What we know:
By secondary structure, chain A is α/β, with parallel strands linked by helices. Helices cover 33% and strands 23% of the residues of chain A.
Amino acid sequence: MMFLKPYGDTLNDGAIQISFSLPHPLNETSKKVSLELALKMGIANPKITFTQELGEGFSFFIIYGNLSHEIDIDSIKTSKVKEPIIDYWDINRLIEEKFNRKIVIVGATIGSDAHTVGLDAILSAKGYAGDVGLERYPVFQVHNLGSQILPELLLEKIMDKQADVVLVSQVVTQKNIHIHNLTQLVELIEGAGLRDHIITICGGPYLSKELALELGYDGGFGAHSLPSEVASFIARRLLEKSK
Amino acid sequence: MFNSPVDSGILNLPRDSINEARYLGKSIASAVHNKIKDLSTLSIERASLRMLGIRGANQEGTPWVNIFTEKCLSANLIQNGVLMILAQVCKHTSMNPQQAVEMVSENRIHLNDLIEVNGSKEIKKLCDELANKAYQNLSNKKKERLNFINTLSSGTKPYLYVIVATGNIYEDVKQAKSAALLGADIIAVIRTTAQSLLDYIPQGITTEGFGGTAATQENFAVMREALDEVSQKTGRYIRLVNYCSGLAMPEIATLGLIEGLDIMVNDAVYGILFRDINSLRTLTDQEFSRRILSFGDIIIVTGEDNLIKTVDAKEMAHTVTASQIINYYLALKSGLKPGLIGLGHAFEMDPSESDSFLHELAQAWLVRDLFPQSPIKYMPPTRYMTGNIFRGMVLNAAFNLIGVLTNQEILLLGMPTEALHTPFIQDRFLSIENALYFKNAAGNLSNEFTLKESSLMRKRAIEVLNKAVNLLKVINQKGLFNALAEGTFASIKRPENMGRGFAGVFVKGSSYYNPFLSLLPDNATDETEA
C-alpha cells in the first residue's frame, strides 16, 4: 500500500493552502470560524496568514496548514485508456474512401457561454499547439457558429446543414448552467429523432469523457485536448457507424 | 482625432499616415451616415416613446411601447413616426401619452379609426410640445444629477472597472458595494445571456439570470441607488455601466439616460459580427443611440477587444486600430465629443512569444497617441488565462503596468479566476489591490519616458498603423456595409439584407416627424476638433 498526501518540503507534511470569503465582518468571531472550518476540512495546525475586510459584512482569509487526510493509491481507478490517434492523412483517406463526400461538422458554444477559445482551437484551420484544426481537413466541412447560440437555434442549424457531427463547447460555470444547456441540446436532438444520425461531442476545460457520456454525448474532451484527437474520434465513430 | 503638432505623443507617429487615417475614417463614416439617414427602426420608435417617459408592460410582460409600435406598423402608419401617431391619439382623446399608448395597446382605441396622419401643423405642434416637455424634464434631471456628482471627488485615473454578474440584482448590489469600498471606480452589471437578441426591454426587478443580470429600467434604478449610497459614503463618485447594444440598443440608451448611467458599451460592429444582427438595423440604431448618449454625457466604450479574441492578436492588431478609427468618426458624426468616445482594445497576445510585452506596450501607446482626447478602455488578458490563478496574477500585473504607463483611462481589471467562473467577491479584492499598487507606485512613470528613434516599439506601432490605413483604404473603397458583407472583419460575412432585426428597418415617409431628431445633439464637434 502506498499513501499519498500533499507535500511542501518534507515528505508527508501535508502542506496545503486555502482561501475563501465569509459573509461576515472581519472580527474575532469570523477568524475563529475560518480556523474551525479548516479543522473540519482535516487541516491540522491551521494558521491564518492573511485577512481582509471586503467592504460591508464580508471577510477574506488565506490559511496554511497540514492536511491530515491521505489516499491509498491502490484504491484509485482511472479510466484513461486512450484510443490511438489516426493521423491526418489516414483520416482524410479513410473517410474519402468510405463516404466519398464531405462530413459536415457544426460547432458552437451554447447558452450563456461567450468563450470561443476552445472551440476555435479545435475548429479553426490554425488549430492549437501546432496541431491543425478541423477546418484544415479536406474531408470535413466545418460550420463554426461562434458563441452564445441557443440550443434551439443550434438544432435548427444541425437540421439545416444536415450535420453529421455536432461539437459544443462550454466553459463558464455559473450555477451549473453549462450542464443544463448540454442536456437540453441532447434532449432536443433526441426529440427531433436525430440521435442515431449524428455524432455528439462536447468539450471544455471542466468536461471529462465520463461526464460527457453521463450527459448523453458520444464523446467529451477536456482541457488540453488537441484537434487531432477530436478528428480521430470522429473518424473512428463514423467508420464504426457505417459498418 | 489625433495629436496636435505640438504634442506628437511618445511614438512620434508619421504625420502622413495619421492624416490619411483621418481622411479615410471621415469618409467611411460619412458614407455610412448617408446610407442610413433616411431610415428609422422599430427600436428607434420605441426609444422615442420611452423618451416621453412611457413605461410599463401588459400582463404578459410585453412592454406597452412594443405593442403600440406594432399597432402603428400593422395599421401601416409607422412611416410617419410613432410620435406623430401618438400626438394624434392624444389630441383626439385628450389623454396623456402614457394613457393613450395603453389604450391603443389594449385595442380600446383603433388606429385605423383615426383621421389619416398627414403631418398637419396642429399635430406637429402637439408633437413638439410633448417632446420639448420630455426633453426639458430630462435636462433638469441631468442637471440635478450633475449637482450631486459635483459634491463628490471623481476619483483618479485610470478608473478601475470591475464587473458583477450574479444574475440577482440584490446580490449584484452586495458585490458592487464591496468592490467600490475596496477601490473600484466603475461597476458594470453584465447582462443576462443573449439579452442583446431580445427585441424589447424586459420588465421589473429581477433575481434570476444566466451569465448575468437582466438590463431593466428597474434594475438600473436599484443599482444606481446603491452606488449613490456608496459614493456618498466614500466621497468618491462610483460610475455605473451597462450594455447599449443588440436589437433594443436605442431603448437601452434611453433608459441609461433616464436612470443616470455613466458609461455604456456600444458597438454595432460587434453585434453584426458576433450576434448576426442586421447591419443596416444596428448601425441606424447606433446613430440614434449615440445621440441620446451624447445628450446624457454618457461615455461609450467600443468592443474592439472582440476582434482579437479568436485570431492571432499580434498579427491582427491593425484590425483593432482600423475599427477604432471608424468608430471614432461614426461617434463624432452622432454628436459625441472626443471625451465621450471610449475606444476599446485588449491585452491578448500570446505571452509565451518573445517581446510580447513590448508589442502590447506598443499597441497601448498607439491607441493613446492616436486618440489623445478620448478615454481609452483597456481590456485584460482572457485568452491565455488557464486556471493557474497565480500565473494569472502575473499577467494581470503586466496588464496593469501597461495601463498605468500609457495612461489608459478605463482599466477593466482582469481576474485571477478568468475562464473559471464569474468573479467571486475575493477575486475582485485581489485584482483591485493589484491595480492600486501600480496606480500608486508607477502612476508617474509615463513622464519619465522618451523612445529612441530606432525603438522596436515605435517601429511596431508604425507598422500596425500603416496596416490599419491599408485596411481602411479597402473599406473606404467598398463602403463599410459591403466590407461587412464580404467578410473583411474576423472573416465573418454579414450581408446588409440578412441577419436579425432586418424586418424592423423602414424608410421614413415624406411626412415622418420625430422632434427628438432636432433636439438631440448632432455632429457638433466634427469640424472644430483638432
